[in-house]
Fold:
Amino acid sequence: MDKTQAAIEVFNRYAEVYQERYMDQGMYADALTFFVRHLPGPNPQVLDVACGPGNITRYICDLHPDIQATGIDLADKMLELARLNNPQARFEPLDARDIDQLGLTFHGIILGFILPYLSREETALLIQKCAENLCPDGVLYLSTMEDSYEKSEYILPSSGVGPAVFTYYHEAAALQEILSGQGLQVVFEDRKQYQNGKGEPVTDLILVAKK
Structure:
């Protein structure tokens, strides 16, 4: 089973568990509010990549009800939950790496914790496609787990049951270099530190970049 299929299996199996654990986006309120406030236009089109249960979509639409949201994901169970949580938005099955196939441009694009499942090369290509599909003055929201890329490893689901998923760690300097190379300027940077279920320290990196 390749890494993408393993991730899909895990997210389908634990979609409701994921929803219970991560629906509340309060920890990332500062970054998401900044993102929403910098969306250009009165009725901004926003793409939520690897949208999961629509947790981020719901948060930003509560902040800005005029957002026209589209979400994509490969896990059918996640899409079902996203539609229930956001009946006003549109959701469809699509690989994050294929956003160019939508044939649309957006005022904002969200990459909420998709990068832990993408290599550095895949991340660079995705950011390139995001830049190409952002309107002038559009904004990109990016969140990921921060650590040395060399520490990337297979991690079991938090339940301890199911296939291990290869998890990539990313470094701020490398991401900023990729963003800059695509004409995206970082205008917001934040980190959230906490402990995982094993008591190990975890750092979440959040960046917002403007075209």
Q: What stands out?
A: DSSP finds seven helices and nine strands in the chain. The longest helix spans residues 120-132. The chain has a mean pLDDT of 94. The beta strands are 45-49, 68-73, 90-93, 106-112, 134-145, 153-155, 165-167, 185-195, 201-210.
